[in-house]
Design a protein that fits this description.
Number of helices: 12
Helix content: 40-55%
Strand order of the largest sheet: 3-6-9-1-10
CATH architecture of the largest domain: 3-Layer(aba) Sandwich
Strand content: 15-25%
Distance between the termini: 31 Å
């Protein structure tokens, strides 16, 4: 875009024919602005900010795992504020019912008919705080929504807004009053990231109200729903040659036979790995995917999907990457 263009990229930045002067330039600039907006709130966690940007561009659901107080919810809120699309927030707790998030049919006596009252899932960005504090039947209500972008209420299948993304947080160390996410649930999260504790200098900045919750009011929208959707279309147009796609598939298949893995990555993981690698290439300023892009996003896409015995998913992915042949140009 030309210098001096408005801060928020909207559908109006796309010309009358639905095209942009350069759709890749549009997506690259949008990624940079979104990354900058999130970095101003979540200080000292560039890896988590990058993971969030990749999830948004690739259309992948995002899971943020970490201990309390490091900024999981703040990151999710900042994303919703930076992207001017419909958003909702759900607080996980043991009494949460499936209908509390999907919606319910209500009988209207004066009209003599039933009306569907849609739940918070019917938003483009759904912030689900402490997902693992919700009971299994409520977690199960997310499965259809996250995989098929639709919700079934009393036999009627209702489409969700497009684009649509679930951003969930959980504390992986707490056990009291929690319900671990099952494998089918984890497999629907395209990207998983942690935040970690900030270094001392960054923590001082946060204590001086230079970031964190106090910085949320300063987050300005960088795009609307149309601009976000257009950027996702650009990501899908990033070139992936067959050898690079084969590398992504081989990596996922290798997890299924690893000595420390009881349940490996699914074919859905291979699709997501390729899509997130496309987003990473675009963020890096390229319109084609290279093997290093696949390696760079492999941890975030695969580690949470693996059921292991005694080792972490990150260790397994690292072991496989270290021993994997990289295709030559």
């Amino acid at each position: 875009m030309a210098k001096g263009s408005p801060v928020k990229l909207t559908g109006r930045d796309i010309d009358r024919d639905g095209q942009y002067d350069d759709r890749f330039a549009y997506a690259i600039e949008l990624a940079g602005r979104l990354r900058s907006a999130l970095s101003g709130v979540l200080l000292g966690a560039d890896h988590a900010v990058l993971a969030a940007v990749l999830a948004m561009l690739s259309g992948s659901h995002l899971l943020v795992e970490d201990v309390p107080g490091v900024g999981k919810t703040i990151l999710a809120k900042a994303i919703a504020m930076a992207v001017q699309a419909s958003h909702s927030r759900v607080q996980g707790h043991p009494d949460l019912l499936p209908s509390d998030i999907t919606g319910v049919s209500v009988y209207l006596p004066d009209k003599g008919s039933w009306e569907i009252r849609k739940g918070p899932l019917f938003a483009s960005i759904v912030l689900f705080d402490e997902l693992n504090r919700t009971p299994p039947r409520t977690q199960a209500a997310l499965l259809e929504a996250m995989a098929e972008r639709q919700v079934t209420i009393d036999g009627d299948s209702l489409p969700l807004p497009s684009p649509h993304i679930v951003i969930a947080t959980q504390n992986p160390l707490s056990e009291l009053g929690t319900f671990p996410l099952v494998e089918s649930q984890l497999d629907r999260f395209g990207v998983c990231t942690t935040i970690g504790y900030p270094d001392e200098a960054t923590e001082v900045d946060i204590s001086l109200f230079h970031g964190g919750e106090s910085a949320l009011p300063d987050v300005k929208p960088v795009c609307d729903g149309n601009g976000w959707s257009y950027a996702q279309d650009a990501v899908r147009a990033v070139t992936v040659v067959e050898k690079v796609a084969e590398m992504a598939v081989r990596l996922c298949r290798a997890t299924r036979t690893h000595r420390h893995v009881m349940l490996g990555a699914s074919p859905r993981a291979a699709i997501t790995l390729t899509r997130v690698a496309q987003a990473y290439a675009l963020v890096s300023g390229r319109t084609y995917v290279i093997p290093d892009d696949v390696k760079a996003v492999a941890y975030g896409v695969l580690r949470h999907r693996l059921l292991t015995d005694g080792v972490s998913g990150r260790e397994v992915v690292g072991d496989l990457l270290a021993n994997m042949a990289v295709p030559r140009p």
